Amino acid sequence: MRYDLKQTILHTKEYTLAFVRWLALSLIVGISGGLFGTLFAKTLSFVTQFRLSHSWLIFLLPLGGLISVAVYKYCRVTGIGTDDVFESVRSEKSVPPLLAPAVFIGSAITHLLGGSAGREGAALQLGGSISSALSKLLHLDEKARHILTMCGMGAFFSALFGTPLGAAVFAIEVVSVGSFCSAALFPGIVSSVTAYSIAISLGVHPERFFISSAPELSLDIIWRVGLIAVVGAIVSIAFCHLMHYTEGLFKKLFKNGFIRIFIGGLAVVVITLLLNTTDYNGGGIEVINRIFTDGDVKYEAFLIKMILTAITIGAGYKGGEIVPTLFIGATLGGAMAILIGLNPAFGAAIGMAALFSGVTNCPLATIFLCIEMFSGKGLIFIAIAVAISFLLSGYCSLYSKQTFMFSKLNEATYK
């Protein structure tokens, strides 16, 4: 009995010290993520509104691309991106501190001049870069640095998108599919919630989409939801392959980064002029909002967004793929909903869940994300769509450095 009591006291002391340590570290990361994330969010919001008011800026996209490449070369972070942040969580490799200003400037240029890209990918890189710098400053060991990097990723994602739970789980789940680092859960939630609270208090508006009504659970609705999820899984596979293929093709055809991004920018400008609309420039949150408020859906929108995003990111412009993924899912799901007799807003929510789960392989994060974005509406249908898309999308991923620890089909270790 005395031995057990002694062990209990020792364990209590150990856990208390760990609690205090990680509370302090995660608060530091959360505050940093909240402040810098707010600055990043407001910057992108400002440049986006400026572009919408000055449509001629799209013609400067090729020149802006040259500046973006020059900034990356000056900061000596050429070729470093989200995949490298993921790799730093699994290895001794650290994220260069200068990646933060480079991706900040590069993303601002992309959004100002009309490239088809999101912002959350940049947020993951910002979070990883700043957290890595903090780890070195505080002389943390390798395992603590890995956890702090995940905290930084989640904090910035949370500050920008306004989904603290989804962001925290996503940052942990996305690195190694099937292996959940439970040690990162407490600091991850603290840093994400802290960053979210700061961003909200400083005027960053969280992304929320209103579903007026979700249908009652029935077999008739389930098969329709399942159909959207199946098509969503297929489209997620196509999107991942298109993104990787386009990037490889650009690098093969144009060895020089300046020429590559200039040609890609010209392509985006030409396609935008041919379409005679700016709906597909930037992330596209405005288009998603129209589906939920007005039921306004164009059947070809998801395909156009896929092509423009692949060209933009493949050519070397900075930003992210998450908001374009939600755009593709919303337009695909909304269009299918009209065809099979569902509410477009409900179909858009199902499509967003299916695409996000399919391209990121993060089913738990997707469910948490959807709970926050849709205020819990239609949760059981969203969970069904997430599960279907996660399985059917196989091992395709937007992130080439994402690892799969276990097979999706059985309990065997994936190889």
Explain what you see.
It is built from 16 helices and 2 strands. The protein has 415 residues and is an all-alpha fold. The chain has 2 domains: 2-201, Clc chloride channel; 219-404, Clc chloride channel, CATH 1.10.3080.10. The relative contact order is 0.14. The mean pLDDT is 90.
Strand content: under 5%
Give the overall silhouette: globular
Number-wise, the strands total: 2
Mean pLDDT: 90
Instruction: Give me the secondary-structure category.
Output: mainly alpha
Given this structure, which CATH class of the largest domain is correct?
Mainly Alpha
For the largest sheet, list the strands in their spatial order.
Answer: 1-2
Q: Enumerate how many helices there are, as a single number.
A: 16
Q: In this structure, how is the largest beta sheet organized?
A: 2 strands, parallel
Percent helix range: over 70%
Radius of gyration: 21 Å
Total domain modules: 2
- Low-pLDDT stretches are none
Descriptive keywords:
16 helices, 415 residues, Clc chloride channel, mainly alpha, globular, two-stranded parallel sheet, 2 domains
